[in-house]
Amino acid sequence: MKNAKANIIQSEFLKSIEDIIPASTSLVVELSEVLNISMDSAYRRIRGETMLSIDEIGLLCEHFNISFDAFTRSRTGTVTFSYLPLEPLAENFNLYHQNLLNEISVISAAKEKSLIYACQDLPLFHHYRFTDLANFKVFYWKRSIMNVPELANKKFGAETQFPDLIEKGQAIVKAYSEVPSSEIWTDSTIQSTLKQIRFYWESDVFETREDALRVCQALRNELESIQLQAEYGTKIIDKNILEDKERKKEDKEKVDPDTNYKLYISEIELTNNCVLVNIGNIQSVYLGHFSFSTMSTRNEIYCKKTESWLNNLIRKSTLISGVAEKQRYQFFKIAYEKIDQLVNHIEKE
């Protein structure tokens, strides 16, 4: 009986790995390379004739960034989360971006994938399309959240740039654009970014007034791009379409119709960022932590509970992507008015 149960767990564990590897490779090849075993030995493990050792499970979990506790079906109420602690060092922020890129790349490469994102704040994925806003957000995270010492007395200006991080961030955007997604926003979703800009302006952290206004304009450009994607009902990778102020409906022909994007507006306030990822039959949950960091788990019970909560949230929300032109216009009109109020505040002070 115990052997039968162990075989089932091993089969599900290996199936989860098969779900996340690219379609261009195979499970037997991945096992052979990661575990440094022959193809025949890999086949025996896939068929359940040979049980994986503790060391082999550890190697596979580390290589594919998965947790084995998701397959134990523990019902004790204990959930194990993965978390990357970040010390106040600039290189650690680079590591954070690399890990995020690795994870979103694994998701985008999977055969079957989707995600639901409950957005207390604007999703990081969108920022890196717009360099001025991306540089500001990176500066804010490093200076005010991570307390990186070398930025403690620095101000943000036109010369404040993080080209390596921006390049990595744009790769993250591209990978995210290939994952069908549903985002749930509230009226407060853009509020944190507006508060960050206002706080830095009133604290004299911007070098000039023009620097603050440039970031405000970048935020408006970001919202315009999201509004356009909501209108088309799909994510847009082509930057020319996003930046063309004289857009025409024919642009839809340039958009990948298989990359779906749904935007919902919830009347229920969100207290945290929460992402549910589906890869084949395997689910993962990512929770916001310390403003931009995340904790993640593949605990089956926790993921199912999160899925139920998110689906209930969606049922009570308004879909503003696709044909909901009036609701979409009204939502973004209010968002633009909030940006205009901040711009007026900066210009008049």
Q: What is the succession of H and E elements? A: HHHHEHEHHHEHHHEEEEHEH
Radius of gyration, whole Å = 22 Å
Please report which band the strand proportion falls in: under 5%, 5-15%, 15-25%, 25-35%, 35-45% or over 45%: 5-15%
Number of strands: 8
Class inferred from helices and paired strands:
alpha+beta
Q: Tell me the quaternary state.
A: single chain
Q: List low-confidence stretches.
A: none
* Overall tally of structural domains: 2
Globular, elongated, flat, extended or rod-shaped: what is the shape? Answer: globular
What integer is the average pLDDT? 86
Number of helices: 13
- Spatially, the strands of the biggest sheet line up as 1-7-6-5-2-3-4-8
Residues in helices, as a percent range: 40-55%
Main sheet makeup = 8 strands, mixed
End-to-end separation in angstroms reads 75 Å
SSE topology:
Blueprint: H1 2-20, H2 27-35, H3 39-47, H4 54-64, E1 82-83, H5 90-109, E2 113-118, H6 124-127, H7 131-145, H8 163-177, E3 181-185, H9 191-202, H10 209-232, H11 239-243, E4 261-265, E5 274-279, E6 282-289, E7 293-297, H12 300-315, E8 318-319, H13 325-348
Parallel strand pairs: 2-3, 3-4
Antiparallel strand pairs: 1-7, 2-5, 4-8, 5-6, 6-7
Helix pairs in contact: 2-3, 5-8, 7-10, 9-10, 10-13
